[in-house]
């Protein structure tokens, strides 16, 4: 960053002015400059540091001297013009608006702590705050190894700061998601720094001789200090042993333009390398060749089965409550399992522990409100959020025949956090989302997520910690139709699961530690209920048998730091599925296709009976080798098993997709991924680059026979076939997260191919050859650029390109049943035209007075700036006896948007 | 689901759009893929149509297979009858011999031989009712049916709509090419004011009673006529043909319907491979598309007169012109205009004709025939 900064200054100087420095006198070769560049120039040539409030001086223009003058004369000149006070103390110059500063003590009295945050010069915290020194234990204790632990929290809000880093030249330790850290050291004297994302760096001296505890409170940065973030980046990406992990905090997500200006978590992750989506109205995403159902989407430990609103236009996470997201594409920590492709871990914010605050957001489609604050003491806090839509205006624009259309959705979050003490913390979280829409007809579609979770984190001793998690997840959808009173029906689907998880971490010494634990999930599914509605309905009720199962897992992952350079991590997860009875169990003629005609026998099973057991050992291993402080190489092998599958014969997630457990006939999906990566930080760690390659095999992925019936099918095994797949790719990322200009460039080359060649299944796709999956888009590139014009204006441009997705095209036509019809090619033999889109957003912050009652911000932007009609699909239909081909775009125009946010 | 999809396309049309798109694909004439369509009707008229698949951009739809041998066999391989080839790839057999199971064998001129799976003929029940209802949007016509024996749960319908319509102007003159003059029209044999037009169904209409109590189909919609449409301007008739199907046949038609009539929705339903109940004997990899049904066909006809409807007004815009005697050769021989009435001078001599465009005078120009159907 520094280089960049200097480059910037040089530019400024050459444009704005030029300094002539002889002895202690300075002159400018311009008559008029803005004050900022005057100060920067003086700072550069005098070696003195300037402290000021940016907003006091950012618009001020001054007349400057062409004749050389000493500094005090220059200050007088500037002071006379601007009415600002320039105070020189030691080698620092303080610029204040009202009273002159006479001594440093005065600074602390005059400027309260928040005002100090506004000071625009790096390292001012070090200048103004003394470095604290802590001494723990007696030197005479003579230990060989000591442990320091504690937690790090936000001084202003009392919330924990996750993933803060405590480091010095040779050691660095990350605090966990809840702010807890453990530092294993040899006794002695140290100087450490603490970095937290968006926080002021803390430096402290430590003289430690026995085990001890230290808690830190960090101050929020209102003006981003560049160096701090850079260091944090360095520590996280190059150093960690995990690979294929992408992390975005909500601030970054908010800078990514989205349709209607609504910050969208799922849309944001599709801008990362290796993550693709089949189209714009889809929140389903594909990670490294995985299908949409191979992603485990966790929200505060809850599994979210349908993370979308309004047919997939929005993701179902309220951006106001999300703290950050982590996406594991490759190395899945052993504590996660049950999905092949990825884990998306969405964490919500903790409530403010000091005072009651809230936010209000108004957008074109939705409004959001949050309220948070302490409950009784500073140990307990809550956060409550709600979001609702008024999308009906959008439907009003439809032709008259859609007059009756209605769509609405809501989501609610509630979380309570309580700190018992520095070693124990409990979090309760509740989530509810609801969608209802009725379109053009009398069919009502609706779906809900309802989730609760309870997490208890406890440090049992200095070396041993434990997290207990209990989560209950419910998803259901209902389709009602009373179009024809004789055929009126309600069709519903319901899934619920109860998950208990226990995670342990034990630190052996400064070189090794172990994660271990177990998890059990009880699934209960009502896979389909079709009942007549109304008195005249002649519909015959059809209720599918319930399905239930237990998914169990135990795991252990051992991390060993062989040297400063080499870290190894080896893990095993033993997972198991117990399929419970309670419905008729069919057996089919062995080695033949499974169909109605090959049924051998049927027997009834009781609900307490285990009808099938699956058991798979999964491997989670990786290593990191640090070539030097800015360059590392990592490798990993991961295997996974997945016991619950989404059945969908559409290319994207639809509200009628059903989730199906593995059973006697439907085998679990299995996957193995080999990955290799290189990570290099450039330009004093301000630019982060990475290359990752992977090869992946997928076994027993579910595909469908032609004309498969997925809804209300009592014997779904007769309509599905097992498919194998292979995926490989390379992902390149160059990322700069700090500075006035920041952003990233990502490029991915990847393939995913499926193969269905088992003649015993009675059906082969494309004669048993490999064919491209629906979401196989070999080339994809994304560029995201943010420019921070000032503290109040921020511009972002996002551009994305990808190869068109594969499609099955008509290759011939024929006449049948009174109409010309089309004959289709082999599956996915062609591609739709390539995709390209650019968006633009401008975020405008209100002024930065910290003590203002409410802070407002606006975001204004354009989605699809060039109005390109990116085809979402190409299709051919018979219309009035003729074949017509169409390409359909979801967003075919420029979409302007505006959003208003208020924080109080 | 269907309505959902339609509405979704509606929403997308505000934001998004669809554009015509015909990628340059296979430019070949025909693909060696057999298309077979038809039904075997015991003791009735069996009809099979054979054609090849045409290249997607071929303008013609003439790819019928004539001169093939189409044989009907029974279970023990005995020949029951040979279907007779008429034009346009049609093969007919009247008074089809009765059998429990039929096998259809097709031998094409290029030497491919195809054999069907067993075709079990079903006794299609009579159509219960064809009902219609008028609302502000127009008229909708429904079919209801029921199999009292509970054997048949799947149905397919096709229909022929016939409607009577009038041209805007009634002409009592015609231009005789024999005499190159305008003569009085033969109002009995050459009336061009009233016509009847047939429209055949061009979509797949299928229904299932499998999930309905008492195994009946209630009000399955076949036709929707927009308000004030010409079809109901005078009198309208609808002939519905119904055939019972097996579950497999229903699955085939449902898939064909999904593949060719419902593909363009937002969730991107995948087109899937369409099969056949015939297989190529000499090359099992050769593709065949089509499902030959077996069973009787039940038909029912209804009439709807304009007087039965409330407030149904059809109008067409036309203007009359004057054609002077010296202009007759420019307009009438090529039927640019059709004479309607003579125009006289004050002294009573013919000085020209009142005439109008053919579409306004000759009802046949709109595609109908002026021959009254026998059932009318």
Automatic annotation (TrEMBL), chain A:
Keywords: Cell outer membrane, Membrane, Receptor, Signal, Transmembrane, Transmembrane beta strand, Transport. It is a multi-pass membrane protein. Residues 263-339 form the TonB-dependent receptor plug domain. The keyword Cell division does not apply. It holds the Pfam family Plug. The keyword Nuclease does not apply. It is found in: Cell outer membrane. Its main location: membrane. Residues 1-23 form the signal peptide. Belongs to the TonB-dependent receptor family. This is TonB-dependent receptor plug domain-containing protein. It comes from Polluticaenibacter yanchengensis.
